[in-house]
Write a structure and sequence with these properties.
2 copies of one chain form a homodimer. Chain A is built from 19 helices and 19 strands. By secondary structure, chain A is an alpha/beta fold. Chain A has 3 domains: 92 residues, Barwin-like endoglucanases (Beta Barrel), CATH 2.40.40; 238 residues, 3-Layer(aba) Sandwich (Pyrimidine Nucleoside Phosphorylase, Chain A, domain 2); 81 residues, Aldehyde Oxidoreductase, domain 3.
Chain lengths: 529, 529
């Protein structure tokens, strides 16, 4: 059937497209935010081999006119999908707005134009506001495959985005997400760049600041690579998955909340990027600033206290780097109109004693209850950060914040406020119990605790099952500077299953996490007074 | 069951591991050389959520002691695997040396130590021979996920490896593969860096050089992103998938062969890297040199003529870049002890007329048969390259190679040699017919053909079904400099199915591939004489 003198856009093209539909089938494989289309190798409509090498396809709905990009995985397995079916993930169905069984067509995807821009960034060029905007839009729309995302993360990591590019990236990330509006100002917030286990100061700062009367509608993340996020720990006490309207009511009534921010889709591009930053464990300054500030802007915050812990096993390990990061945060914050107060804190060891949701919740409650056994480092750090937030209030004199915060905590007003917030969000029936299997790691020799490795302790807690198992994790029985005898307990691992206790114990055996030696003066660079 | 005072390496650990086995199940999903382990979300043995965020697991066989690294995909779908099963790909089964139904255990994977080195490369550091060796070994053993491979490709692209690093990378790639030994020297070869459709000179150079008596055991690849590789085109005439022992017999008898090199696993690390370089379309000089030279060394070649086509839509687009690339090839070749002659050739348009296996085979046969209609550009280019190979023979005077090659071709000795090689490899029953659906693209206006876009023509041929459909592709009816009338045919698309003809016609409609205009002198930089 030779078709001479057809114009390239002739009917045969469209005719072919109409014929070539497949039946969309839900495939229950979690591909972590990468759109994957499963196509049978023996598909009679499309030649799977032709797609294999070109690697991305456009999946479209003939009826609705919507389309997505997806990576093709060729399937030889009749159990998964039929030969006239196209397997798609839950997310792909949502993006396409179709139901299982709907007809879909596929075509070779044009490379998103922003990929050319990314190539130029890989080549070391500086990008404009519009160019970064286009990349971020394509990322948020799932148009990048995982390897393209990895290329973006490495390319923007390596040549360190300049500060204007970080600003553009931040603005672009805000633009593709939703923005919360609290109908009043200032809206204050407190955030830590992460990396320090047990650092649950938000659960103290929020009730203190809200008790003072400032608006602090805190949205937190769940743990991504850490053994507990604030949302995971708060969930031991109350419901955290709240619709925005419910959050607004709670905040109106109590001036604060401690909710999970995941439902609000505040920074969809960031959610996608995290899926590759995490396994690469790349967290460059530019990406960190854009990620954090875009989420804060989207959450409606106008005033932010930012905690940068500094220590040999923290995210930031040298005072120079901490200062550079501080200035980058300040530059971008000023240009997006956010009031920012950066605090560099002691990040030489985990904060408090517990690592893992239930153990950290216990520490927080001890502080709120003014329990004499409460971990003093958690209390003091929370008071310091709360004090800095309170000083955003024009009626609080510079330097008085700490004392005001301490009064609120000591008087029980913070505890009362926390109880009110917990009740409003929906109090948990009971505190989750600690996990049933334990293993105690003891000092191999006598001496002083001279170092506690934050990464190792986080990894052990995580392997033990935290944050999924609320009661799993690590309880620190000694901290920096403590004197220990040989055989004295250093920390205790809590796990729910034999496999998890094994994973955690194996990690502890490889790298104990504690260093026992002669007491030495603290390197000055790690502590800011 | 608290277990006080257990040493971290205590029995509970091993006991836990023994209990925690799953049944390995073949999953027929082609993940393109990435090891993926499919784990049910409701798996009663391992908590899938715990693995999700840590992303890579070590899968091991309790019986054999072998292990692989794999990325976990969490499965909610009971059709694919059972809750006590672990789904693995064909390749993973091979690597583990087990059969379907064997017990496997999983554990959180330690990050391969070479990942730390890669991080340093991302940070811009220079790597040593040992460091690059460790990375390449881990890549060849499938220990890197796709996103980690992408990070490597971008990191070594961006900061352009220095020439010693390229040398180390080349050596490392040779080391992890197999090396063929032909028991005599010199072993000559000819290679093109690619990117030029229709460039099937190897199928002419091999019979000419073999007819002269030099040893030229050519192993070629199948097309990766192009519409035809030499192996795909040769397959129109003869069997190309030959065991090494059979290749050796053929080469002993006929001095040459044209076989597919894929079975020999000459450069397993390169095979893995290509899986991400291709979709990123990154082909940096350092990676290209290491990839090509490592494969040639592994194939046992001692003398190589390398073709670098230069043109506005070829891989190399400026003479400066061509010269830099030439010097990098020469530097590495000298240090690995290979004789190398680099030829920069005219790459302004496709070579010959056909693009696609059967169409290109037709061109080659016309040249071998001294058909007056044979494409002269293909003939001349092949003679030039063959001449350069012949000049590796000490008995051929410098400059005489072209004439010697022409005599071999004109006398019919090249055709006779090709027939002998085809018979030895196993002659195909018949030449594959051209595909049944055609579409002719015509000149939209009168004028001269002033440009033919190599990338566009390759893409159209590929969308039409080449190389999978041997008879699919594009037949060029006009070439650079030809005068055309409005409506006169420029090229014809051949496809086998309506969907493929549609894909190709749509691409042709978007970017015709031909530019018609006023004849202009050729930019001098594109042609070396």
């Amino acid at each position: 059937m030779p078709s001479e003198y057809l114009e390239p856009s002739a009917p045969i093209a469209r005719q072919g497209n109409e014929r070539a539909t497949l039946i969309a089938r839900r495939v229950g494989i979690d591909t972590y935010r990468e759109n994957v289309a499963y196509l049978r190798r023996d598909c009679p409509v499309y030649r799977a081999e032709g797609f294999q090498a070109l690697s991305k396809v456009e999946v479209s709905t003939p009826d609705h006119g919507r389309s997505i990009l997806a990576v093709v995985n060729v399937v030889d397995d009749a159990r998964l999908i039929g030969e006239r079916e196209l397997g798609l993930s839950e997310e792909a169905f949502a993006d396409l707005g179709i139901e299982d069984g709907a007809p879909v067509a596929i075509a070779h995807a044009e490379v998103p134009p922003s990929m050319q821009t990314l190539k130029r960034k890989i080549g070391g060029e500086r990008l404009t506001r519009d160019e970064l905007g286009a990349i971020v839009r394509d990322i948020a729309r799932h148009r990048y495959s995982k390897i393209e995302l990895a290329a973006f993360v490495v390319a923007t990591n390596q040549f360190e985005l300049d500060r204007d590019e970080v600003l553009y990236l931040t603005e672009a990330m805000v633009e593709v997400g939703r923005k919360l509006d609290w109908d009043e100002k200032p809206v204050v917030d407190k955030h830590c760049i992460g990396g320090l286990p047990g650092n649950r100061t938000s659960m103290l700062v929020v009730p203190i600041v809200a008790a003072h009367g400032m608006l602090i509608p805190k949205t937190s993340s769940r743990a991504i690579t850490s053994p507990a996020g604030t949302a995971d720990t708060m969930e031991c006490l109350a419901r955290v998955d709240l619709p925005f309207e419910r959050m607004r009511e709670i905040v109106r009534a109590h001036r604060g909340c401690l909710a999970w921010g995941g439902r609000a889709a505040l920074s969809p591009a960031d959610d996608v990027l995290i899926s590759v930053e995490r396994p690469l464990s790349i967290d460059s300054p530019g990406q960190m600033v854009a990620s954090i500030l875009s989420k804060k802007i989207a959450a409606g915050s106008t005033h932010l206290v930012l905690d940068i812990p500094l220590g040999p096993t923290a995210k930031v390990r040298h005072m120079d780097d901490a200062q550079r990061l501080k200035k980058l945060f300040e530059y971008v914050a000023r240009h997006v109109g956010m009031m920012l107060d950066v605090v560099i804190t002691d990040g030489r060891q985990p904060v408090g004693r517990g690592i893992g949701p239930a153990l950290e919740a216990r520490d927080v409650l001890q502080v709120l209850n003014n329990d004499p056994n409460a971990p003093m480092d958690l209390r003091n750090k929370a008071l310091r950060l709360a004090g800095r937030v309170l000083e955003f209030d024009r009626d609080v004199r510079g330097g008085d914040g700490f004392a005001v915060a301490r009064d609120i905590l000591d008087s029980g007003r913070a505890l009362a406020k926390m109880n009110a917030i917990v009740d409003a969000q929906g109090r948990a029936a009971e505190l989750p119990p600690l996990a049933r299997l334990t293993h105690t790691v003891r000092a191999p020799t006598e001496g002083h605790v001279t170092a506690i490795d934050c990464e190792t302790m986080a990894r052990i807690a995580r392997l033990a099952g935290a944050p999924k198992v609320k009661g799993a994790g690590v309880d620190l029985l000694k901290k920096l500077g403590d004197r220990v005898q040989r055989g004295e307990p250093l920390y205790r691992i809590y796990a729910d299953t034999a496999a998890e206790l094994t994973f955690a114990c194996d990690a502890a055996a490889r790298a104990g996490g504690f260093t026992i030696g002669e007491p030495a003066p603290i390197a000055h660079g790690y502590v800011e007074f």
